[in-house]
Structures are given as structure tokens and as C-alpha cells.
Amino acid sequence: MRKFIVLGILLLLFLVGCSTKTTDEKVATLVNNYLEAVETNDVSSMVKYADDIRFPDKAEQKEEYSSIIDEGINSNITGTKIVELKKVNETEFAATVEMIDEGNLTNFTFPVEKKKRGWKVIVGQDL
């Protein structure tokens, strides 16, 4: 009987461990979600996944992003992907991404930081 209890506990621990994403996977998913939002001009998702240091207020960030989309500035991005995701420390990653904008391939590196509200892509820094 004791053997079955131990096996049951081990199986439970194994299943819990397998069902939780690693931090790297969580950050990669966040960055991919952000990139998809950029490609599709989904302002709400861009604001959700990113902290823009130019706009500490989320409402202001959303308003400015909507204005940019309305002017057609962001609509030329046709492809994005993560090139490299590097762990800096326990609360920060560096995500190098590739973007195709008006047919031109450009690489950017974004910090990704763990905040009180979870992981966020940090945008708005000097490129």
C-alpha cells in the first residue's frame, strides 16, 4: 500500500511538472503574441503584452498606438519572428526579433522584463 502512495505522489509531481511551462517558454509565447499583435495591428493586444516606456499610462499608450495605426505607419509589417531569446537574469530576457517592414528585413532587440503583472515586452527605448 505504501508503495502505491509513493508511486501516486511521484506520478502527480511528474504530471504537474510536465504541465507547467518553463520561464523560457512563457517569455517566447509572450514575445510571439506581441509580434502577432504588431503584424495584425491589434492595439489592445500590443498594449496588453508590452510596456512602452514613452507612455506610463496604458490609456495613453493605447490612444497613441491607435493613432499610429490610423495613419498607416505600422501597417507595412508583413513578417516577424524571434531570432534569439537570451536569458539575462531571473527577471529579464533579451528578445532579438526579425521584422519585414516594406520588404526590408530589420532586427530589433527588446528587453522582456518580469513585472508585478507578469512578463512584459519593453518597447519605446532608443533603437
Structural account:
- The chain is α+β, with helices and mostly antiparallel strands and 127 residues long.
- It has a single domain (22-123), classed as Nuclear Transport Factor 2, Chain: A, CATH 3.10.450.
- Helices cover 44% and strands 35% of the residues.
- It contains four helices and five strands.
- The protein has helices at residues 2-19, 23-40, 43-49, 58-70; strands spanning 50-52, 77-89, 92-101, 104-115, 118-123.
- Strands 1-5-4-3-2 form a five-stranded mixed sheet.
- A hairpin with a 2-residue loop joins β4 and β5 (118-123).
- α2 (23-40) packs antiparallel against α3 and α3 (43-49) packs across α4.
- The longest helix has 18 residues, at 2-19.
- The termini are far apart.
